[in-house]
């Protein structure tokens, strides 16, 4: 009961041609780090330690990851969709944040209080590689 | 915080309601919406009877997840460990305490597990999240730390900071349990239940109900994904509220929520029945982590008193 994989594929494909990597913020968080004021998601376990550094940080809600790509360590666009590909999270945004299984903040979910980490998202209800949306409670 | 021995890990039995989602209100809406849908309703199968409000959407797996109270205990123990770790490095920090009431008030529970199902929230917020504002608490203590201190707190690619170390300390010694497996089951039962004949029949009734209300969508996912609204922006249009209200009302009157929840709950009960050892290990793991967190907090508070 979620968006079909085909539809999601179209969206992801469209994103490849239209989405640009966001302008690098003055303070962002590749290389396993995550500074204050943001929620950081990582494609690999343990905040990408020892793995390809595909990461992205958020300061506000995002209802559908299908049109988002991971960033590389140097802030360039990896061209890899981050939909259903999150494996670890750090919450430094200053309030709780919820990761959702399906777009539109629906399906199974896990909430992370501020200053919490989860290097292995499979430890939570949302599970590994099943995140499609994020809502940040104070933004 | 100890786990209860009443067949639950202490998970809240009744998630907080965001509006008039009680039985009476739902019953009134059901009568109205059912009447509206009746004319074009497929003959069979009939809508599933059972849950009639969001507050009743409590699932068997919920008993193995943390309650707001437990999350507050784990969060406060983490805060105490962070403060201790930073103190060893000559820096005093005081993260604000986690409040279980605040966590409970904002927790969405299962209200959006089957898509948006809260009629009152849909009426006021459309498909957008309906939640009270939550204060940003980091700026007060961590936002103005100098760069070197920030590195000690957050860590670097090479070294773990105090936040990471606190997490590892809290998990140390807990009996291993297969949380990844539970996470997978939690997602799978939802998706498998969606294919149950009672649910697919209810989706057809939902379609019919929505058509009668003037909204043509092939499935609930298409309604929430309608390009006319942007859930990433705060603005909620009257059109969005109108469609979301019809959508949620039809979900209940068509028996979609009841059928999906019933199929989901049945699948979860079967998983628990067939995997007693795994669930015992999950409960033991959470119990140990909570016990460790409680002891750390008691020790921390004892030190503060002295």
Automatic annotation (TrEMBL), chain A:
Signal peptide residue numbers: 1-21
Descriptive protein name: Peptidase inhibitor family I36
Organism: Nonomuraea fuscirosea
Domain of life according to the entry: Bacteria
Keywords carried by this UniProt record: Signal
Pfam families on file: Inhibitor_I36 (PF03995)
From TrEMBL, chain B:
Domain of life: Bacteria
Name used for this protein in its record: Uncharacterized protein
């Amino acid at each position: 009961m979620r968006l079909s994989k085909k539809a999601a594929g179209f969206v992801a494909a469209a994103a490849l041609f239209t989405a640009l990597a966001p302008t690098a913020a003055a303070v962002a968080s590749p290389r396993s780090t995550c500074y204050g004021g943001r929620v950081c998601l990582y494609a690999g376990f343990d905040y990408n330690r020892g793995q390809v550094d595909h990461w992205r940080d958020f300061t506000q809600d995002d209802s559908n990851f299908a049109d988002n790509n991971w960033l590389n360590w140097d802030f360039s666009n990896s061209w890899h969709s981050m939909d259903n590909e999150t494996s670890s999270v750090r919450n430094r945004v200053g309030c709780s944040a919820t990761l959702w299984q399906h777009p539109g903040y629906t399906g199974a979910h896990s909430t992370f209080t501020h200053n919490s980490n989860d290097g292995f998202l499979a430890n939570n209800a949302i599970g590994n590689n099943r995140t499609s949306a994020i809502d940040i409670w104070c933004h | 915080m100890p786990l209860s021995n009443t067949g639950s890990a202490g998970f809240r039995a009744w998630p907080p309601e965001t509006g008039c989602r009680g039985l009476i209100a739902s019953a009134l809406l059901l009568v109205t919406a059912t009447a509206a849908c009746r004319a074009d309703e497929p003959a069979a199968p009939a809508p599933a009877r059972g849950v009639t409000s969001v507050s009743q959407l409590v699932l068997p797996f919920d008993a193995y997840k943390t309650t707001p109270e437990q999350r507050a205990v784990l969060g406060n123990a983490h805060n105490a460990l962070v403060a201790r770790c930073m103190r060893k490095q000559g820096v005093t920090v005081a993260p604000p305490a986690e409040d279980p009431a605040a966590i409970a008030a904002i927790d969405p529970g299962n209200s959006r597990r089957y898509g948006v199902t809260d009629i009152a929230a849909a009426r006021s917020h459309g498909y957008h999240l309906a939640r009270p504002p939550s204060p940003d608490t980091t700026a007060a203590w961590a936002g103005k730390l100098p760069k070197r201190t920030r590195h000690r707190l957050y860590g670097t690619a090479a070294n773990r900071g105090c936040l990471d170390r606190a997490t590892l300390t809290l998990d140390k010694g807990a009996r291993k349990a297969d949380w990844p497996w539970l996470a997978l089951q939690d997602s799978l039962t939802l998706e498998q239940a969606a294919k149950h004949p009672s649910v697919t029949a209810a989706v057809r009734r939902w379609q019919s109900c929505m058509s009668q209300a003037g909204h043509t969508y092939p499935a609930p996912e298409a309604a929430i994904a309608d390009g006319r609204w942007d859930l990433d922006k705060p603005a909620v249009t009257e059109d969005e509220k109108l469609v979301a209200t019809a959508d949620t009302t039809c979900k209940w009157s068509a028996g979609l929520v009841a059928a999906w929840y019933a199929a989901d709950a049945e699948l979860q009960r079967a998983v628990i029945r067939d995997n007693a050892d795994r669930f015992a290990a999950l409960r033991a793991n959470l119990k140990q982590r909570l016990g460790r967190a409680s002891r750390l907090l008691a020790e921390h508070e004892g030190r503060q008193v002295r």
